[in-house]
Design brief:
The protein has one domain: Flavin-binding protein dodecin (Dodecin subunit-like, 2-Layer Sandwich). Helix content is about 20%, strand content about 55%. It is built from one helix and three strands. A three-stranded antiparallel beta sheet has the order 1-3-2. The longest helix is centred in the middle third of the chain and has 13 residues.
Length: about 70
């Protein structure tokens, strides 16, 4: 494998259905503007609560992508 450089940035995905869907939302949305996504690591999971019930699932992901050489 050739030498490579990657950057990790955090994004937060939100879903009213599940943490899994929140992660998919984050990765798919980031993938629309960032190429060469490699790995997503769950940093944190939490929920928002409204009227005593879970309203949204939130996932904070560390997403890595590869820098391209010019």
């Amino acid at each position: 494998m050739a030498d490579s450089v990657y950057r990790v940035t955090e994004v937060i995905g939100v879903s009213s259905d599940s943490w899994e869907q929140a992660a998919r939302n984050a990765v798919e949305t980031a993938g629309e503007s960032v190429r060469e996504l490699r790995i997503a690591e769950v940093v944190r999971q939490d929920v928002t609560i409204e009227d005593g019930k879970v309203a949204d699932f939130r996932v904070r992901l560390g997403i890595s992508f590869k820098y391209e050489k010019s």
